[in-house]
Amino acid sequence: MTDASSETRLQIRIIPVTPLQQNCSLIWDTATKHAVLVDPGGDVDTLLGALDHFGLTLKEIWLTHGHLDHAGAAHQLRDRLGVPVIGPHKDDQFWLDQIESSAAKYGLTGLLNVTPDRYLEDGDVLELEGVKFGVVHTPGHTPGHVVIHNTDAKIAFVGDVLFQGSIGRTDFPRSNHEDLISSITDKLWPLGNDVQFVPGHGPTSTFGQERRSNPFVADVITGYGGAEKVDASTYDQRTAKRHT
Ligand SMILES: [Zn+2]
Ligand SMILES: [Zn+2]
User: Are 161 and 70 spatial neighbours (Cβ–Cβ below 8 Å)?
Assistant: First the structure.
C-alpha cells in the first residue's frame, strides 16, 4: 500500500508500533508534505524518525479508540510537535485515562494518558489538505471507537473493529459483542466491498473479502444482504486470532 490513492495525492505508510505491533498509519499529501498520524500507540522516536525521513510536517493526530497501543504516544507527540489530538468518541475517555495503568500491566513504559483536543462523532469529517475523511462511530470493541475512511481512495482505518479473518475483542469493560457486529454490518459494509482497510493489527484486507470469508462476520454468518445463513463455525471462531 505504498500509493493507495494517487488520485488524491495521498501517500500512506503503515508503521507497526509497541510490542503489540499496532498498525500506526502515516498519511501525507505529496504536494505539501503535510501529514497526519492515525493511532500513534508508542515508539515516539520511530514515528518522529519516519516524519523526518519523508520530510513531513505533522498537522494532526487521529485516534480510533482509547486503548494504549493505539493512543499511548499521542500525548508526547502533541507536546513535541504542538499538534492537536482528534478523536476518538468521548465514550472512550475512560480508556484514555488508564493508558498508564494498563501499560504497566503489559510491562510497557513511556505511554501516557491523553485527553483529546476534540472528540469525534458519527458523521464528522476530518481533512488533510482538502482531502476529506469521513468518521463513523463503531462501538463494540470499545464504546467510543471510530472508523476513519476516505471515499475516493477507498481506504478505511478501522482500528480494532475488524481484522483480516477476525474481529475485535469484546471481553473488556463496556465492550459489547452485538454492538460490534452491528457496527461492522451496518456501518462498514455499506462503505463498499472494494474498500481496503487497515486494521489495528495484522495484514490489510477488503470489506468484500471479509464478507466472503471472515468466520465472525461473513454474510453467511450474519445474514447480511439477505444471505442464507449457515450455522456459525464455532471451531473457526474459537481459533481465529483476536487482538487488543
Ligand atoms: Zn489494538
Ligand atoms: Zn483495542
Answer: no
Run of H or E residues at 48? helix 44-54
Give the environment of ion ligand 1: residues with CB less than 5 A. Answer: 69, 160, 200, 244
Provide the 8-state DSSP code for 126. E
Question: To the nearest 10°, the Cα dihedral for 18, 24, 26, 27?
Answer: -170
Domains with residue ranges and CATH for the chain: 6-206 (3.60.15.10)
pLDDT, tens digit (0-9, with 9 covering 90-100), for 178-205:
999 999 999 999 999 999 999 999 999 9
Whether residue 215 has a cis bond before it, omega within 30° of 0: no
Q: 172 C-alpha vs ligand 2 centroid, how far in Å?
A: 9
The string of pLDDT tens digits covering residues 92-114 is: 999 999 999 999 999 999 999 99
pTM of the model: 0.94
